[in-house]
Amino acid sequence: METASVPTDLRALLENRESFFRRVGRLWPEGSAQYELIARAYCTAKEALRGIEREEGVRYFEHARGVALVLLDRLNCDDAYAICLALLHDIVEENPSEWNVPRVREEFGDILGEGIAMLTKPQEMWKLTDCGLAYHASFWHAPRRVATVKLADRFHNLTTLCFCSLAKQLRKREETRTHYLPLAQYWGVLAREIELLLDTPPELRLEGIP
Question: Is 27 within a domain?
């Protein structure tokens, strides 16, 4: 009897999830409080970001998971709250009709609620080209955990910046050089990696042409 084969795209998604939780399982055993908290954050972020795509044409959840993987793979992070913040960091901005900071606090507790509050740009800035000096500067006063997640987020965004318009690339690179590279150097978090990405010339992409 023939067995049904798993579609290639579904197999890739399963492998991605399984691969992610293999990493988590090396730090915390399945069933532990940390493992279960991360699993809940993973599912919440995946559902909250469902149907939203990034500029590079992939589902937005890939960015959330990518930031968490930066923490796990590049920074050897063993802070379960930081992994959860990485997964959840954009759900309020990207899905404001369903998510806000009070809901995060209610469902995940004060530590993650406070972290998401710091990582979320004020609503009046969401549609602005420049999200404001006060927001960038706030990470100098944030706990190391929150600053680390923000730096991992910025690093991951820099790796996909070539899919953005040249104007956005230049703006984000200047923003990073002014605000986030000094922060990375201060904390000793991804400073060299961010500097190398900034030293790579921006890519010219014609508007409307992939």
Answer: yes
| Pair 150, 90: CB distance under 8 Å | no
Residues in the chain with pLDDT < 50? Answer: 1-8, 10, 126, 206-210
Could you tell me the residue range of the domain that residue 98 belongs to? Answer: 8-199
Distance, CA of 86 to CA of 186 (rounded, Å): 20
Kindly report whether the global pTM for this prediction surpasses the value 0.85: yes
* Alpha helix stretches (DSSP H) within the chain: 8-27, 33-48, 61-69, 80-88, 91-94, 101-108, 110-119, 133-137, 144-159, 166-175, 181-187, 191-199
Backbone angles phi, psi at 160, to 5 degrees: -115, 15
What SS3 string covers 132-164? CHHHHHHHHCCCHHHHHHHHHHHHHHHHCHHHC
Q: Is the dihedral of CA 140, 175, 87, 21 positive or negative?
A: negative
Residue 31 lies in a domain: yes
